[in-house]
Amino acid sequence: MQGRFNQWASYTTDEANGQQFYHDLFYRFFFVHEMGHWMEEVVLKQRKDGQTKAADDNSDHNRGELELDANRISVAWWRERDPMFIVRLVGDLRIIQGKLPSPVPAGADIKDFFARNYMKLTEDPNAYGWYQLQMIIVAYDGRPTMSFYQATSSH
């Protein structure tokens, strides 16, 4: 993994090394992203209505949307806390993702393919990385831009 992050960092113009890129991506961006997943899970577990089981069952089929929501939360957090960080990070992610081959077969639906092949994709750092980078970019480019409050209260 260290070699992969060194390689990915080498594609950018501002990341000195893979360790710094890893730090920015995991200790900063994905820390908040994982908090977003925790929030999603808490909301789902506290749901006490006739749709609770259906919502729980659908979570496996909606992995892409759950990842996108967690990325929306992190993007919104960093836009408010350190806007230059998220601008720089997403700029780097665009460059890196452009160097990675898309794991999505021609004509396949990106979200459906992700949900059906999730476990296999997680075994390939470039394939899963491509997806995560794509979902961060989509969250960042989303309009209208959401505040952290909006991103966390839309669940």
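Second entry:
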Amino acid sequence: MSKLPALKVRATKMPSEERKVLIARAAAKLFAEKGFHATTLKAIAVGADVSEALLLKYFPTKEDLLAASLDACRQTTFFASLQELLPTEPSTKALVHAVQVVTRQITMTPKSSDRESRDTVIRMLLRSLCEDGEFATLMLSDLDEKVATFFASCLERASANGDLDESAPQPALAVAWMRIQLSLAVQAFQLPEKSPVGYGVSKKQFSDALIRFQLLGMGLKGSVVRKYLAEE
């Protein structure tokens, strides 16, 4: 009996879109570690395990890679949780819940692939702020268009319901300060394995205190904050 010819197994190629995502993530990690200007296309190609020719086929310029890195950052669990909040009807209760969700993500996410992806975004933001601010501008404007608008709408609804203190800042200012600058500072101090700041309390206690601080800083009355936090 004659033997059947051996079947040749062809290596399957990675789909183009999947390859582009991997390249974008590799670029994001390098941008976070070295900064945009110090990162070369060659280094990105090595990090993504592709040839420079293939890299340039997908992304002709570093600016294209920066935009793709921004898209890759949007795919993290952290940003997904923000997107889930957006369809909610703006209200005082929705504001309290949103602040809780975001703060828990910032302060209590364990070390994992999701945490690593989120930390990469923070490092990119900090790097960008130390350089030309281009990535930070792209990322924060993206958040402003979606998340910040939702928070501001909640604050306006809270004001209409009489839930804000008379000394409450303008909604846009409150959101810019509490939701962006404060959260960025808190996340930056969590980047090392061991935080350089000793809070003297558990992560849960710190998270709870930060939630109250933000809600009061946005202008909600103390009685309103206590009411909705008790419900949660």
